[in-house]
């Protein structure tokens, strides 16, 4: 690749049948760091195959709608990595690969998962830093461990710091569009690192929003996105608020098997606030072993961020000021107002190969 050239085309031969190949071509804009060694490196297929023992099943860390993730060790540096292998059948996965490489390669922040390298030689592969404690989802909902309160509060602050960087501190505003517990990874010290930028979009700071196809994960999507599919800083803040409430309450945003009044986490917490029983929603697994002032703060910030009207939500900077006790708790109304737009009662959900929607179900 030539230096000082932002745009280039690459073509990838995608094997669909044993003796048949189709050509898929797409454009991806990369910064100069790909040519001068400052950013992620290009791997050969053989390097990443060897690192993962040829993508052995016992190295698999997990699997999503667009492919599986494997633990690997780079032979030349003994570095542990997590290798995402895009599914051969996923055209949406190909788009996510392009978005991921284009966007995350430009980002540098301690609370973002670091992209180590990429490969589109025989398959679409992405290599990330390996994070010892896996995803927040595993700890909160799958019993991998009981996260103590101090760590939970630190995770929220770390996630907020990452979002501030994406929204306000870079050359472009980055809309993540898929903030959820499963995309928040934890390092050896349980520091939060936001990952999976497959649905992310770059927008100009002055614009701050983008009309696009509905994308994200059910339970985390802001209500205004259902009507217009308009991603914005405010819709990212909504998703952040949902995760904040999940961390405080120790349950998923949607629990279909719960009693009707408790299925939606957001509605359940709003009702507790209205009845002046807010601390009653705190995660019972903590056995009341938490700082009550911090718990109250976390729940207030969570509700502030999930306000149904985008204009009533805080910026992520305002949320951070409250979380750091540099500003007063928000003045929330006892009953959340109904937004002044209609939300469709039904819509199509597809978990793979979406043609008009990019929505996934929480796992």
TrEMBL record:
GO cellular component: plasma membrane
Keywords recorded for this protein, A-Z: ATP-binding, Cell membrane, Glycoprotein, Kinase, Lectin, Membrane, Nucleotide-binding, Receptor, Serine/threonine-protein kinase, Signal, Transferase, Transmembrane, Transmembrane helix
Compartments in which it is found: Cell membrane
Binding site for ATP: 84
Every Protein kinase domain range: 55-329
Keyword rRNA-binding: no
Matching CDD domains: STKc_IRAK
Membrane topology: Single-pass type I membrane protein
Cross-referenced Pfam families: Pkinase (PF00069)
One GO BP annotation of this record: defense response to oomycetes
Organism domain of life: Eukaryota
Predominant subcellular localization, coarse grouping: membrane
Keyword Kinase attached: yes
GO MF annotation terms: ATP binding; carbohydrate binding; protein serine/threonine kinase activity
Family annotation (SUPFAM superfamilies): Protein kinase-like (PK-like)
SMART domains: S_TKc (SM00220)
PANTHER family named in the record: PTHR27007
Family: Belongs to the protein kinase superfamily. In the N-terminal section; belongs to the leguminous lectin family.
Name of the featured protein: Protein kinase domain-containing protein
